[in-house]
Every structure is written in structure tokens, then in C-alpha cells.
Amino acid sequence: MLAPPAHDPKAFNPTRPTYKYSNNDISSYVVYVYSDKPSTMHFSVLSRIISDSIKNDILLIKRLGAGKAIIEAKSADAANRLLSNPVFEKNNLRAFIPSFKVLRSGIIRGVLSVQIKFAGQILPSEIVLFNALYKVYAFVPKAKICYTCYRVGHIERDCKSSRPRCLFCGSSCEEDHSCPANKSQATCINCGRASSNLTHLPPHH
């Protein structure tokens, strides 16, 4: 089974389709909740509204950001029931099950590679498409790499570093930066291990 990705802020999109857990899905059964007015909804208020109304169906409530929370439900049915609970609409809240909890992406290879999303948490080993049998491979998305700080998990547009880092020594890159690193013996500035990938620089380097 594929490991679920990290929580993505873009998951809070009001136009998303509605997903539900099936009886074959395994825990944890999470439901995301967000406020239409996040700046005015403190987490203590949000958690109290949820707990007072639906405490019999939930195990835990976690804060995810301003006006956002993750509810861990006791079962798949309990999580699905939360989606239609009137307490959310009454308090200008939205609840949804994130797609990464109930869908998996796979690749089939033939003349062309095709990415397919499958319902459920486990990929099938094979599928039949137009009467032809294809093996299904796990789809592994490319890692996000920031070309400002060279850390993994976000892109340059979302970087919170105050200054860019040197790809070779990890120090702040000033205009007069003189890199002390031996570039013929390249190492990763994040883990310190030897690396041969430092030739793949972004266009502005």
C-alpha cells in the first residue's frame, strides 16, 4: 500500500468532489474541517463546536492551521456520517475526506504510460483495459524541491527562508559569497552525503 502524502494546504478546496470511506479501508479515518472565516475561528472554539455536537463519533481533534482541524473518527461509517452533520453548516464550517485517504494512483505501461486513480487504499496488481491485461505500478510523484533554500517539501514560491542558500556549502548566498566547498567532491547540503546530482541546477544558477 502506498504511504499517504503529507498534508497539503491545497487540499482545502471547496470545489472538490465528495469522497467517502468504504468498508475495506483501514484506519485512521480522518475528516478535514475548515472555517469559511478562518481569521475569526480560534482552534479552541472550533474543537468545542465539534466535540459538543459529535463526540460519540470521534477519537481526536488536531489543529492544522488557522480555522482548520483534522478529526479522527472511530470508524469509516462514523467519518462518513460527519460529512452530513448539520453542525458544520450551522457554524459556517466545511467537512470533507481528503482524496489521499481513499484513492491511490497507479501507472500502466504499454505504448504510452497512463496514470490512473483507483478507489480504495490498495492498488490492484493488474487491470484489464480494452480486453488487454496490464500490470499496475505504483505512481510516485516527483519530490518538491525549493531552488531558494534547496530543501525538500515545498517550492520556491512558498519558501519562508529569509535568504537563499548556496547549493554547495549551505551558507547564505550574498552577492559577494565565496563558496568554500570543493565542488569536485559534491555533498548534499541537507544530509551531508556524497551526491552526483548537483549538476542539475535551476536556470538562474
Automatic annotation (TrEMBL):
<keyword id="KW-0479">Metal-binding</keyword>
<keyword id="KW-0862">Zinc</keyword>
<dbReference type="InterPro" id="IPR001878">
    <property type="entry name" value="Znf_CCHC"/>
</dbReference>
<dbReference type="GO" id="GO:0003676">
    <property type="term" value="F:nucleic acid binding"/>
</dbReference>
<dbReference type="GO" id="GO:0008270">
    <property type="term" value="F:zinc ion binding"/>
</dbReference>
<dbReference type="InterPro" id="IPR036875">
    <property type="entry name" value="Znf_CCHC_sf"/>
</dbReference>
<keyword id="KW-0863">Zinc-finger</keyword>
<protein>
    <recommendedName>
        <fullName>CCHC-type domain-containing protein</fullName>
    </recommendedName>
</protein>
<feature type="domain" description="CCHC-type">
    <location>
        <begin position="146"/>
        <end position="161"/>
    </location>
</feature>
